[in-house]
């Protein structure tokens, strides 16, 4: 997407009130071919369960509070910080207007404010959720219609969300043998949308993330214009009187308190007024997102007899997304665009995409029981076709904030993609059990895919296409059904084990093809360039997985427990391999490398109290995994992923997702601590010419791991890992008659995080506000502290990727606390009435310094544990009522 910090998630189209069940399939996923390696989630929506007409109405209103945030400097503290930072720019100017402390000075009121910008852009807000469903039918047909509407005001101003859901399904019995199932769903989402989180760079545009500006904007400035109470002598032109902040109008004048510092000219140091961005950048043709989703399913079924039927699912999904992005002129300073090598006043972008998925699944299903033998067979084929079209445009300098059209902009840049991929899978499944004692299940999928290279080595070739083969076998033994097993207190005991192959085809759709792309040279001359060197040997990843488990119920089923172990081996990893420089490209896709995953999950439930009026049950789960990279393409020893100035290293023989950087050992307190004339082991850095620069007083003391006195990449090491040691949930449900109290905790222990947001707010290298921790920065000779001095541009790399920014992100969170009451009503008109109150994100126990240790930058595995400061979860309260008519 084109808004920073926003990701379009398909699952947000679902209304949770329409969901009947969610099933996670950790095993037996081979039947899903090259799409099953990461597991399968089956989401079933509600269908009619009543022949009598039944109406359910739901109203849910919530109040969401502003989430915890960083503590940043006030106006006076920032002025002190900025004046110190000025000394490191080399400027000779000493009469900056913002440093004049005379209350009678003309500019005094402009630069002596104490603005809490977070209070200006964050707000407590309301969330509303309404739902209505109608179901019923008769012997011939049953139907269900549901309508839902959700509106979320968002605690971050001008980030509102609205969603409309309409879902209809029906089951029609045409004859005794022929029936048909029909489903239709429509969802429309609209959002006011602005950038979120810390900027990834300062080179291409002005910062427009209001959540970041709420922390980084100078608190000595006011959101409102500076004017009024000024007298100009008509003869001499002399100005007298003192200006005032005029609260009726927003400040749209560019920051100018550092104009005299020439070194800042192209550094995009000026920060926008976040209130002005909200005011001038909000409209349906400015910063806005709309997503519409249509799903149509038709499933005819013919029953030959009570044991055998044929069914065929025909499905079509259409998803349209439209996104508008606008950087206004008013309140946003002009900024330097490195791509265009010049300054621009404003910017507009647009995105339009459409994805159409056609899916068919035809299967023959047979079930038969022969005395103690129970057999279930099914087989068929699936066909999936996905077409995706994307068009993007970007332009600068539209003229003003009213002519917001790409056509009115300059320096236009257009892009897009048009892709089409198809998958054909033949599959079969056989299930057998004897006396509900022994269970065996065999699955087999044979799949071809347009993403596979025609010269791939695995599988087999047929009809000019490469086919992958994915078998699996699962077995179970219910020991408690054996005659010899008679253990008092154990009600149910089952052992399971299995082994299977599944695949992963999640790779760029045209990775196996060579193609050219168009581009503008120097933003003016059209041309084409080679954009990919195809790999016709490209194939799917293959994951072999062994699993074993035990399931137990005891003490008259009052105690339940399970334990599952898995070990998987993944070969032919879809990875990028380096290309020779003469190709003009750095990488292309290949199959290289392998990894292993091993782990377990366990859980228990206990019914501690089971009484006529009182019931109390508790439960908990615990998971653990260890991954190990066993090989990389071309015999590489590691793979680095660069993210937000940091390095995530995956090491052959070790784990994935390791933070790799520098270790620190405090701050040099005095000049003598690292004086090369006094210390032969003084630490230094070198520039491109080889010239040495020694660390001085107030600089970080980095650990010289290789002992050569030079601090460079040879001194980097593993700083931590985003992989948790254990994770899971804890639950408790206590009920008295019709009153129920439900508590849900979740936790994660042993996982580290890269706090990029804090790195930006404690780097001490730019003219933007910092956290109050920077009040402890080094400022004078002999000062002992762990916070380095503030230096513009950070020439010594004090804020480089190091253990300063790696934090323990373990936590225990009371995720939800719900009190519900089911009124004892059951009459002709009202079949049921339930009311509830719920609190979410009640409290969190953690050492993490960010607002919330439970975050996500993206769904990419290698970006796990990277906190870029996206909007965190705040405490919220809901009350609701559900009426069954």
How does the SSE layout of this entry go?
Blueprint: E1 19-25, E2 40-45, E3 54-64, H1 75-87, H2 117-121, E4 125-137, E5 141-152, E6 161-173, E7 178-192, H3 210-216, E8 224-227, E9 231-232, E10 239-240, E11 244-250, H4 274-280, E12 288-303, E13 308-327, E14 335-337, E15 342-344, E16 347-370, E17 373-396, E18 410-434, E19 438-449, E20 460-462, E21 465-478, E22 490-504, E23 515-521, E24 525-532, E25 541-554, E26 559-571, E27 574-578, E28 587-591, E29 594-610, E30 614-631, E31 638-643, E32 646-651, E33 658-661, E34 664-667, E35 684-686, E36 692-694, E37 700-702, E38 717-721, E39 726-736, E40 739-749, E41 752-755, H5 756-761, E42 806-808, E43 811-823, E44 832-846, E45 866-867, E46 876-884
Parallel strand pairs: 41-45
Antiparallel strand pairs: 1-2, 3-4, 3-46, 4-5, 5-6, 6-7, 7-12, 8-11, 9-10, 12-13, 13-16, 14-15, 16-17, 17-18, 18-19, 19-21, 20-21, 21-22, 22-25, 23-24, 25-26, 26-29, 27-28, 29-30, 30-39, 31-32, 32-33, 33-38, 34-37, 35-36, 39-40, 40-43, 41-42, 43-44, 44-46
Helix pairs in contact: 3-4
Write a brief caption for the model:
The protein is mostly beta strands and 885 residues long.
Keywords, please?
885 residues; mainly beta; 5 helices; globular
Structural commentary:
- By secondary structure, the chain is mainly β.
- A hairpin with an 8-residue loop joins strand 43 and strand 44 (832-846).
- Helix 3 (210-216) runs antiparallel to helix 4 (274-280).
- The protein has 5 helices and 46 strands.
